[in-house]
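Data availability (excerpt). The following record was deposited with the supplementary files.
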Amino acid sequence: MCDFDEFIFTCGHSTFRLKCHCHYARNHPQHWCNKVKKLRNSYDQTYECDECAEARRRQEAAYYYSQAQGMPSIILCHHGPILTLLAGHGTQK
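Predicted structure:
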């Protein structure tokens, strides 16, 4: 049974990372394991996952660009609309 750690981000996403291989996987040339995967620890993180952080950076850049151009805009990310900007006023959704 290979051991995994779970990392839970503030955005609600989580990721699993291999902590150590089981005896079977250590001895297999490609480290394949078809056994049960065991969750050892869960860690709450104090930040967003990389995808959400990148979406937020793109969103903020588009907001500042639209403000410089004087254009209203609606910004979407993979979660759906996060920030709607109309006539230069931002409201969180």
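Summary of structural features: Residues 50-92 form one domain.
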